[in-house]
Amino acid sequence: MPNTFIKIATVTVGSSGAANIDFTNIPQTFTDLKLVFSTRIITGSQANIWYKFNNSTSSLSWRGLYGTGSAAGSNNGTTVGLLAGVTTAANDTASVFASGEIYIPNYTSSNNKSSAVDNVGENNATASTVYLVANLWSNTAAINQITLYSDYNFAQYSEATLYGITKA
Amino acid sequence: MPASNTYESISSVTLSNNSTTVTFGSIPQTYTDLVLVIVAKITSGGLDMFVKINSDSGSNYSYTQLYGTGTSALSARASSQSIGIAGAVYASNDGVVINQFMNYSNTTTNKTWLTRINVAAATVSLITNLWRSTAAISSLELSSGNPAGTFTSGSTFSLYGIKAA
Lengths: 168, 165
Known about the structure:
Helix content of chain B: under 10%
CATH architecture of chain B: Sandwich
Strand order of the largest sheet of chain B: 1-12-3-8-9-10-5-6
CATH class of chain B: Mainly Beta
Strand order of the largest sheet of chain A: 1-12-3-8-9-10-5-6
CATH architecture of chain A: Sandwich
Helix content of chain A: under 10%
Oligomer: heterodimer
Number of strands of chain A: 12
Structural class of chain B: mainly beta
Structural class of chain A: mainly beta
Order of helices and strands of chain A: EEEEEEEEEEEE
Radius of gyration of chain A: 16 Å
CATH topology of chain B: Jelly Rolls
Distance between the termini of chain B: 12 Å
Largest interface: A-B, 40 and 37 residues
Number of helices of chain A: 0
Number of helices of chain B: 0
Number of domains of chain B: 1
Order of helices and strands of chain B: EEEEEEEEEEEE
Number of strands of chain B: 12
Largest sheet of chain B: 8 strands, antiparallel
């Protein structure tokens, strides 16, 4: 049986930090994508982490479900980007990186692109965040680029890996 | 050690016509976990998506759901149901549903699975499901509130198997 879950690329942020984690020229030979990320930003406290397809920040919407350790809530939005949850930051516990994964089915199809996010911004403090997010990019173009970004630059050792999944 | 495949495609269905059910039968018992990814729409409205395991219609299903409406986080629960929950599906809203069936082929324990519903215009949800049977899962029949919830042409259903070491 053919291998159906294959690593496409890994990006690791160097000592200078980076504004984006970018995957370009994504092969169009799979059916689904999974992006797994581990991130931290260089300034402030936990902040949202976003992603966009094909460098587009239009025609997008998201709906989130989150818990902070003391409360649960839900939110939604249509601006900035597709929501990948939260990332840890400079004011959080040292050497703690947020984790998350984004599942993108049928990324080469001519339908609108839905994607699912599971994310945690764990932190050794009173508050931390767990996030589930439904995202929609209302665009029928095939996805050939995925960009992760946040309020500030990503810190060294932030990393993301993109996998391709092929169905029968 | 030579690399071996641990995540494999078992079967996928892309509907060429509208259909009230989609069935994965004769599921191989050679994996440890199953992942079912669904990108579907129905002909009208919005409905729960259901799963019947091994054709069992007994009162053996229960679930606990955590969901977000966009403004509120809520929870719901039901037990002794005659069918399981496998997601939600809409006529006009795009979304993706991911089900993960853990340890599906064992014949000792009751079966549980996780359902993640991701419909940006309607809901985001996590559901934990239980099927009170120790039988290995050999078939999954998906429906969406028949007859109102007929799956539309172009809907995709993809079943993957994951192998433990």
